[in-house]
Amino acid sequence: MRRTNYFQLFSKPIIFIAMVLVAAGIFSYTRMQTALFPGVTFSKITLIVDNGQQPIDRMMITVTKPLESAVKRVKGVTTVKSSTSRGSCGIEVYFNWDVDIYAAKTQIESRINEIKNMLPPGVTISTEAMNQSLFPVFGYTLESKTKGLITLKDNANLLARPLFSQVAGISNVVVRGGKVKEYVVIPDAVKMSSLGITPNTLITVFNNTNFVESNGNLADFRRVYLTLTETRVNDIDALKEVIIKNDGNRIIKLRDIATVELQQQQEMVIV
Fold first, then answer.
1. Which class does domain 41-134 fall in?
2. Helix, strand, or coil here: 25?
3. How many CB atoms lie within 10 A of CB 148?
4. Which residues make Cβ contacts (< 8 Å) with residue 195, sequence separation at least 6?
5. Is 225 or 32 the better-scoring residue by pLDDT?
6. 3-state DSSP call for residue 177?
7. Average pLDDT score, the chain
């Protein structure tokens, strides 16, 4: 008895079906969306609170506990975790997976606004819904043998960051490290006392300096001119020439009563 080979008997339909499956696979592959992090929404909202240099015990009583009580009243909350340090605290709010996390974020912000008057003045609260865009993907380091940390940070903020921000798919670019320049004024107490100048006088002068203010418009010969008052301090030499006191007899400048230095900003890490 002759054996029937079904693959030979139905070779053309089998080849046709295989070609259809291959074509469907190629079409699906070209339409498949790929990403380093898929679009996943986590059932978690993070609150970051800052309140200057408030002690830990005061932060716990006046900030952390009231915020915890407020967010627990939101529907769908399962767990609330918090960590408190000097002047800051972080609160993690977990929800059920079937909760609309962005609607829950709106409800949390509403609950926080209800108790905002009960919190200490000057408290800043940032609310973030946890998603894949909050995680860093790439990190780059700027190094130089001839340039200092101040110059490197300026280059990172002014040159590198705008370039990376224009890349499609990048949501945020953060610059870490480096140093920020600052002008340090070291007053001479003896000279200030002999001239009748107090530290409050210096503070008042600095507050009234380094600004650009509009004085209004001036129309003349069918043209409108914008007048400005500019007292910006562009470098250390201009800062030394700031007038501290003018009594009609003598003009006292900052360089006459203080030493001005250009230094790196002092950064303190709270442990």
1. alpha beta
2. helix
3. 13
4. 245, 252, 257
5. 225
6. coil
7. 83
Assign domain 181-264 to its CATH architecture.
2-Layer Sandwich (3.30)
Amino acid at 49: V
* Angle (nearest 5°) at CA 112 between 100 and 134: 50
User: For the segment 102-154, what is each residue's pLDDT rounded down to a tens digit?
Assistant: 899 999 999 999 988 888 888 889 888 876 665 556 788 888 889 888 888 88
Backbone angles phi, psi at 83, to 5 degrees: -135, 130
Asked if 152 and 178 touch (Cβ cutoff 8 Å), the reply is: yes
**From CA 78, how far away is CA 82, in angstroms rounded?**
14
The residue type of 143 is E
227 by Cβ neighbours in 10 Å (0-12 / 13-18 / 19+) ranks as exposed
Other C-beta atoms within 10 Å of 258: how many? 21
Domain residue extents for the chain: 1-32, 41-134, 136-179, 181-264
Q: How do 223-230 and 212-220 pair as beta strands?
A: antiparallel
Structure tokens at 78: 């399962």
The answer, as to whether pTM is greater than 0.85, is no
Distance between CA atoms of residues 161 and 155, nearest Å: 9
Nearest to 141 by CA among 131, 153, 158: 153
**CB-based contact 238:250 (threshold 8 Å):** no
pLDDT of 34: 61
Task: Report d(CA 263, CA 48) in Å as an integer.
Answer: 31
The SS3 call for residue 100 is coil
73-103, pLDDT tens digit by residue? 898 899 999 888 888 888 999 999 888 888 9
